[in-house]
Amino acid sequence: MSTTTPDPFAKEFGERLRTARLRQQLSQTALAHQLSIGRSTLVEYESGATLPSLTVAMRLAATLEVSLDWLCGLAPDR
């Protein structure tokens, strides 16, 4: 049985994504609908299981009114 170490970058991205979504008072379903992605895909992003493409990450940042650098964990401020 193989185990994988969670990607700390993906975990940070997911935590910040969830924080930004909740600050905008959006449900996962509502945000996924706005971005035309599946709710299950958004759940994977928020859990750190996978990372979005650059295009989707940019759309997430714009929709949630945060910088892409902040969303990616590269800047302390939104």
UniProtKB/TrEMBL annotation:
One Pfam family named in its UniProt record: HTH_3
Domain HTH cro/C1-type per the UniProt entry, residue ranges: 17-71
Keywords: DNA-binding
Sample GO molecular function, one term: DNA binding
Signal peptide: none
Residue spans crossing the bilayer: none
Protein name per its UniProtKB record: Helix-turn-helix transcriptional regulator
Record-linked CDD domains: HTH_XRE
Species in which this protein is naturally found: Sulfobacillus harzensis
InterPro entries: Cro/C1-type_HTH (IPR001387), Lambda_DNA-bd_dom_sf (IPR010982)
Top-rank taxon, per record: Bacteria
